[in-house]
Design a protein that fits this description.
GO molecular function: delta(3,5)-delta(2,4)-dienoyl-CoA isomerase activity
CATH superfamily of the largest domain: 2-enoyl-CoA Hydratase, Chain A, domain 1
Pfam families: ECH_1
Protein name: ClpP/crotonase-like domain-containing protein
Number of strands: 10
Largest sheet: 6 strands, mixed
Family: Belongs to the enoyl-CoA hydratase/isomerase family.
Distance between the termini: 28 Å
Shape: globular
InterPro entries: ClpP/crotonase-like_dom_sf (IPR029045), Ech1-like (IPR045002), Enoyl-CoA_hydra/iso (IPR001753), Enoyl-CoA_hydra_C (IPR014748)
């Protein structure tokens, strides 16, 4: 049985365990409901990833869904319709209703963006049903690995809206074909692991969830063994380069590394290479 990560027991909807030195494993923990998201779950997600981002005991994160059937089936639409998520006040005019909805959407977006903003690399393991919010969430991860049985879909068109929590912004930047993005987003059709691999949405496909988790954990342990200054800096600069021009990114990199190159990690890494020893890096 995996050991609970110290300091993370208070989260109701997520299991947070140790998957090795400096590696956290986060499981979405609502398997009886296919890990479908309630409002409380995305609010917790933000707090959880903000904590992971600042935790010097964590250098890499594996994100998966509990149970055998689903990573997540997306938003729990039934619960949302009964609560405040999808309800509007009929006494308000259009402008005020729009202001209320916009605040709610922006807050929801921000909760998932916390995964992308996490300073530590996040490896997402998808399996089974992975639709709607699953795409929004996994697009925020740095690396996506899936099981062969994964069934993906950008499902929002089929429930009468455009995806609004990040898929339409991030998916075109995560894959090699804008035509394919429009295909799956406009049609809301299912696609499988082989198609996801072909367009670059995932970087690895494994025979089972267990095998995918093993691969993700192995990768996370490798990343956690490296200089946290180098790994976290690389993530920051890659994400900046994705969203800015080459010239802007080169300027930002020069400023970033003018600080990072003063780290003791550089000397430790170089000496370990010369001496053929395993480097040990201080917490960050």
């Amino acid at each position: 049985m995996a050991q609970q990560l110290e300091g993370y027991a208070a989260y109701k909807h997520y299991l947070v365990t140790s998957a090795g030195p400096f590696v956290a494993h986060v499981e979405i923990n609502r398997p009886a409901k296919l890990n479908a998201f309630l409002e409380a779950m995305w609010l917790e997600l933000r707090l959880l990833f903000q904590q992971l981002s600042a935790d010097p005991e964590v250098r890499a994160v594996v994100l998966s869904g509990a149970g055998d059937r689903a990573f997540t089936a997306g938003l729990d639409v039934q619960a949302a319709s009964q609560g405040s998520t999808l309800k509007t006040d009929d006494s308000l005019d259009g402008a005020r209703t729009a202001a209320h909805l916009r605040r709610h959407i922006v807050d929801f977006q921000d909760c998932l963006t916390a995964v992308e903003k996490c300073a530590k690399p996040v490896i997402c393991v998808l399996h089974g049903i992975s639709i709607g919010l699953a795409i929004d969430l996994s697009c925020c991860a740095d690396v996506r690995i899936c099981a062969r049985d994964t069934r993906f879909a950008v499902k929002e068109v089929d429930i009468g809206l455009a995806a609004d929590i990040g898929t339409l912004a991030r998916l075109p930047k995560a894959v090699s074909s804008f035509s394919w993005v429009k295909d799956v987003c406009l049609s809301a059709r299912d696609f499988g692991a082989a198609e996801a691999l072909a367009v670059g949405f995932v970087s690895q496909v494994h025979e089972s969830k267990t095998a995918a988790l093993d691969a993700a954990t192995k990768l996370a342990r490798l990343l956690a063994s490296k200089s946290p200054v180098a790994v976290q800096g690389t993530k920051e600069l890659l994400n900046h380069g994705r969203d800015h021009s080459v010239e802007d990114n080169l300027r930002y990199t020069s400023i970033w590394n003018s600080v990072a190159l003063q780290s003791s990690d550089l000397k430790v890494a170089l000496l370990s290479g010369i001496q053929k020893t395993k480097p040990r890096f201080e917490k960050l």
